[in-house]
Structure formats: C-alpha cells, structure tokens
C-alpha cells in the first residue's frame, strides 16, 4: 500500500506517524456486508462459513442471518466489543466455544434461532452480563447444563421453543432471577411441576408451554405472583391432569390459551374454574375445541372479567341465542374460521358491551341481521360468501368505526348501503368484484378516513363519486380497470393525502382531474399506460395543482414495451416533491428540463430504463438529492455526475449497466457519498481502473457494496477474475512518495547550498575561474608571446596616482609597456572578456590596492582573474601595491588566498615616503623577474605580508 502523507513533511518517520494515526488502514468496504447509518452491519444471505473479520469495531448491531456459519470461536467477536444486538438466525451453528462472548459485555439481544445446537453448556454465554433477550428457537437442544446461564443475571426474555427438551429444570431461573418471558413451546415436555422450575417466587409474566402435549400440570406453590399470560394450547388427546393446590396461585393471569387441549370435559372445566375464581382473566382462547363446546362457553362466561373470547376453528355452523347468553360482559368476540351459515337475529342480544365482532372466514351469504342489534365499533365479515349488500344491512349502526368486507363477491354497491354509518373511519372492500359504486359515497360516511377498493373491476368513476368523503385521507384503487378520470371525479376529497392508482389502465390524466386533491402527499400511478407523443411541453401538466405532493410513483408505464415519452414539463407544479419513482418505463431519454420544477427532490429511482446517456445538466436543479437509483439502464458512463454538483448525494445505485471504467473526478465530485451499489457491471481490469480499485479499498467514507464480488470482463485473459484481486500497483504513480523524495531532496539541497555558501563559497568561485582559465589557455595556447609587460588594475578614484606617479615612472623612465583599461580595452567587447584578455595578454598584473579598490565590483573581478591565473599557471604573475595601510580583517578572501599560496611580493606606497627610489627599484625588479615557479620568489620589501600586518603575525 503506498505511503500516505503530505508534501510538506520531509522526514520519513513523520509519514509513518501520519499513516498509523491519521489514515488508519482498515477498509470501509466490507466483504459481502454493508454498514447502515445507525451502525448496523447487514451480512445476511451471503454464504459466510465463518464469522467475518472485517466488521468495524464501532458497529452496534450485526445481522448474519441466513449464512452457513457452523462454529463460533472465542476469537470471532473480539474485534466488535460494542455490540448491542447479534442475529445469527438460520445458520448451521452446532458449537459455541467457551468464552466466545467474553468481551460482549454490552450485548443486549442474542438471536440463535434455526441453528444446530444440541446442548447448552458451561461457559457458552460467559461475559453476557447485560443480556436481556436470548432466543434459541428451532435448534436441537436436548440438554441444558446447570451453569450455562450463570452469567445471564439480567435476562428478561428466553425463547427455547421448538427444541427437544424433555424436562423443565431450575437452570432457567436459578441464574436468571429477573426473567419475565419464558417460551418453551413445541418441545417434548410432558409434565410441568412447579418445583422443577423454581422453589421460590419468580418474576415471570409470560409462560408459553404450548404444543408440548402436556399430561400433567402441577402447581404446588405460588411461584407465579406476576404471571399474566399462560399458553397451554394443543395438548395431547389423552387429556391433561390439572393439579393446582391453591387457585390463588394463578390469580393474576389475564390471558389464557387452552386451544386444542384434548382433555376431558371435567378436566377443562377444572382449568376454567381455576381462573374464574380469581376474576382476573380477560382474554380467553378456546379454539379447536369440539368437546361439549356449549358447556365450556358457559363455564368461561361465568368469569365476570372476561372481555375477549376466541372460539375459532370449532366447526360451528349456526349460532343461536343460547350459545352466548351468559357472556354478558364480552367486549370482543372472535368467531372466525368456523363453518357459519346462519346467525339468528337475537344471537348477540345479551352482549350489550360488545364492541368488536369478528366473523371472518365463514360461509355467510348475507350480513346477519343480528349485527344490527349490537353497538359494535368494529365488524369483520371478510372471506365469506356475501354476494350483495342491502340498504338495511347496517341500519342504525351509527357507532361502527371499522367495517371489513373484503374477499366477498359483492359485485356492486348501492347508494343507500352505508347511509347510517356516520362514524365509520375504515372501510375495506378489496377483492370483492365491485364494478360500480353507484353513488355509495356521494352522501354517506362523512367521517371515513380510509377506503380500500383494491383489486375490484371498476372501470369508470362518476363525477363527484366521493364528494361526501371530505374527511378521507387514504383512498386505495389499485388493481382496477380505470382508464381515465372525468373532471370532478375527486371532488370533495379535500383531506386526501394518499391515493393509490397502481395497476389500472390509465392512459392520460386530463386537465383538472387531480385539481381537487390540494392536500395530496402520496400518489401512486405505477403500472398504468400513461404515455405522450413527444417530450415537448404540454399545455396542462397533470400535477400542476399538487404543490403538497411528497411522493410520486409513475413507474412501469410501458407495459406494452413501447417507447415511452414524458413531456419536459410533466412534473410542473411539484415544488415539494421529495421521492420520485420513474423506473421500468423503457425510457430512452429524459429531457434536461425534467427536474426544473422539483427543487426539493431527495430520492429519484430511474432504474430499469434504456438511458444509455444522461444529459449533463439533468440533475443540476435538484441539489438536495440524497439517493439516486439508475441500475439496469445501459449507462455507458458516469460522467454526467461531474456536472450535476450533487454534494448531498449519499446513496448511488448504478448496478447492471454497461460502463466499464470509473473515473476519479466522478467519485471525488460526490463528497457526501456513503453507499455505492455497482453490482453486475462489466469492469475493465487494467490501469484505467487502477485508481478506482485503490479508492474502493482505502476510502473511509463510501461503502462500495459487494465490491469483493465484482468481476473482470476485460481483457479476455482476466475475464471472471475478481476485480479487487487484480494487482495494479505498476499502474499508479505514487505521488505521496514522490513528494516525500522531492521534499527530502529539496531540504538536503537547501542545507548543502547553505553550507557551501557559508563555508565553501570562494572555493566554488575559484573552481569557476579555474575553469575559465583552462578554457582561455586552451583557446589561446597557439597565440604569440605577451603583448604587454603588465596590466594595471586600479580603481577610478586612484587614477591620479596611477597616471601621475606610476605611468611616468614605468613607461617614460623605465620603458615598460603597460595595459590600462581606459586606454587599451577594445571598444564593443564584453568587459569580462577585455579583462581576461588583458591579464592573460600581460606578463604581470599590478593591482593598485586601496579601500576604494576593495569595494569596487570590477576591481574585484580583475584581481580574481589575476589570482586564478596565478593559481592555474603556478607562476609569480601578480604584484600587489598597497596605496594605504589596510588591516588584515578587512581584506577580501582573495587576498587571504594569496597568503594561503605563500606569496610574499607586496609593495607599500604608504611606507615608501622615506625611500621612494627604493620602492620604484623594487617594482622594476618585480617586473624584470621571470615567471618563476611558485615558491621561487624574490623578497621585494621588508614587509612580510600585506600592509597592516606585522611580520610576526
């Protein structure tokens, strides 16, 4: 993995620090899992054989249901210490090692349903000190060792249903003193002895012993002071022996189910009398009882507190007034799934407190007259054979709020059938073959809030068909044969918020058809036949007046597989639209202006179309978009996202398209992206996708779902290989590493230059001029002998002395030929070239040194060239004449170099006042002296060194 870091840091150790702490290496893209925003890991149905190791430690919930895990090892969960919920339903777990959950001290819910555990043993649940709910339904558990629950002191819910337990033992409650719900249905328990479960009072509220074929139920102590629900249904046919020493032991039971218990009449009466005496039982289920049903009903209804009574699946064909005459306190009666064909008119006359009556799944052919004599609030007559409704079927039922008539062959309605249902809130009429409403809702049911007419055969809705339903909020018309709406069809539905018109045959929505639905928030028009000739703007957009609409479904309109068009202003008026479903429409194009009218869209589903290319500016008007689904649309590129500026997009689904390369700028433009679905695409496994592969593995914000299963389709030799297994390191230029090397080199170079400038500046200058000297020699080695005896280097401020003293003496008196820059330099030639030619064209160089000379740039250049000639030729060619005393520390490094070369030819004019003739004589001797090798020199003065320096220095 390449180094990560910054070009601003020079040293490698800093890069390693950044790598370790700022850029952790753990990948956010998981192998077959996804992380939701509430830190839940979803890993279901992924064929895991072992517990996945790459789940982040921050995850609080893991769903690993429907996999193939067979063993939980002690190291499997050590990396997820913050779990609150773990679901391992439908795996093949047969073994859980001791201490597997030792670090799961926060876990509250553990679900191990539908696995292969045979034994609960010591240490299996160690560490689960805060577990509240443990579910072990549908395993093969036969044995529960005594210490297995010793850590579960806070357990509230334990479900061991559908296992192979034969006996109850006190292990359930010994270590779980706060257990409230104990479910042990469908085991092999034949006896219940209270002393087996506990020897002292418990906190159990729910005890489920159903489907165990109990032969004995013995309660010898009051261990259930808080028990409210007892389920004993489906006992064995030989009967149950009921032994409760004190009926007060079950005094707080509120809900009892003894359905299917095949006991003797005396035995069942004994059970019922136990609860009748306590006067606490309110909910009784007496289903699947064929033995003396009337007697048992009478026995049950002696309980004055009984308010809900279920007597389903008992084969009752006729109900008369005698059947329920003692049930005067009932509030809810369930008679479903019997074989009722007739109910006498006075069957419910004694049930004066009845408010819920359920008679679903029977054989009634009409609404029983008996229901009109009740004061019920809810009536369920669904799944009967009622073939028509009469005007007086619900006469005077003004208290009725919920009426369920679905799955009856009603065919049609009448305008008078609901005339008295002034307080009706819910009316369910789905699957009833209704083809006409006949004005049933034009004047009735003013308080109706939910009306379901799903899967009927309605073809036309008349003008004002729902005009009385000004309180209606939900209207479900799915699965009818409606083609279009007349103006005013929805007149009166001023409160409607949800309208479902899915799976009809609607071709168009005419002008004003939806204009009365000002409060509508959800509209489902999916699976209809809406289509337009072109994308050109239309004069009357169908949703122009639905400014409050939040969700619109116009998916699957092209059921005939014809090319579909939506006008570019189709969505005009939907200023508050948040969710749009437009998938499955065979769209080949979407006009760029389509979303100009929907600035608040958060979710767009465009999948399953034929949009090979999407306009660059299509999504630009919807900057609040958070979820975009464009799978199965044959997209060839994602470049349209570059121009969309979708900075709030969190979810992008683009699976099963035809693009093969994902460009870096596209992904980087989606700064808020959290979930990316790309399954089923044809990926190119070469350097074109190198960046994408690296990004998938290393980015810490975006999950690329199922990325580890992406396969290569190109080049042919890699077809079928997993995309993330391809090595593309050779494709990438590691810019971080290059920055690191470049920065390090720059720092080293800076240090080297600083060191050189401070300590070796003049050495470099020497080298430079040495090179110039070498080049000059090479260039002029064949030229004739020196043109001048000496080149005089001086500052303009010293020109008076040179012209007044030096020149007359050396040229006029002694006959030397001197070179002076103001007289002998060639005009037009570069100054440095004139200086070099003059120095190398003279046998000697006389430097007239003064303070002004040392400060002059050109004089400095002249003495440099002369010094380098001295250094190059190793001959005595340099004569220094000091016009004034200059301290050593003020001399330029060039003069110190002269001293380093051990030259001692120095003349001082300032000290020649007493002996001027001697000064000129020494100067003449210096000029006459041949260019001796260095070290063979003549002592010209008594000064051993430059003026200002004592001989002993």
Automatic annotation (TrEMBL):
<keyword id="KW-1133">Transmembrane helix</keyword>
<dbReference type="GO" id="GO:0005886">
    <property type="term" value="C:plasma membrane"/>
</dbReference>
<dbReference type="GO" id="GO:0006954">
    <property type="term" value="P:inflammatory response"/>
</dbReference>
<keyword id="KW-0399">Innate immunity</keyword>
<dbReference type="Pfam" id="PF13855">
    <property type="entry name" value="LRR_8"/>
</dbReference>
<keyword id="KW-0395">Inflammatory response</keyword>
<feature type="transmembrane region" description="Helical">
    <location>
        <begin position="7"/>
        <end position="30"/>
    </location>
</feature>
<dbReference type="GO" id="GO:0045087">
    <property type="term" value="P:innate immune response"/>
</dbReference>
<dbReference type="InterPro" id="IPR000157">
    <property type="entry name" value="TIR_dom"/>
</dbReference>
<dbReference type="InterPro" id="IPR035897">
    <property type="entry name" value="Toll_tir_struct_dom_sf"/>
</dbReference>
<protein>
    <submittedName>
        <fullName>Toll-like receptor 13</fullName>
    </submittedName>
</protein>
<keyword id="KW-0472">Membrane</keyword>
<keyword id="KW-0675">Receptor</keyword>
<feature type="domain" description="TIR">
    <location>
        <begin position="786"/>
        <end position="927"/>
    </location>
</feature>
<keyword id="KW-0677">Repeat</keyword>
<keyword id="KW-0391">Immunity</keyword>
<dbReference type="GO" id="GO:0002224">
    <property type="term" value="P:toll-like receptor signaling pathway"/>
</dbReference>
<dbReference type="Pfam" id="PF01582">
    <property type="entry name" value="TIR"/>
</dbReference>
<keyword id="KW-0325">Glycoprotein</keyword>
<dbReference type="GO" id="GO:0038023">
    <property type="term" value="F:signaling receptor activity"/>
</dbReference>
<keyword id="KW-0433">Leucine-rich repeat</keyword>
<dbReference type="InterPro" id="IPR000483">
    <property type="entry name" value="Cys-rich_flank_reg_C"/>
</dbReference>
<dbReference type="InterPro" id="IPR003591">
    <property type="entry name" value="Leu-rich_rpt_typical-subtyp"/>
</dbReference>
<keyword id="KW-0812">Transmembrane</keyword>
<dbReference type="InterPro" id="IPR032675">
    <property type="entry name" value="LRR_dom_sf"/>
</dbReference>
<dbReference type="InterPro" id="IPR001611">
    <property type="entry name" value="Leu-rich_rpt"/>
</dbReference>
<keyword id="KW-0732">Signal</keyword>
<comment type="similarity">
    <text>Belongs to the Toll-like receptor family.</text>
</comment>
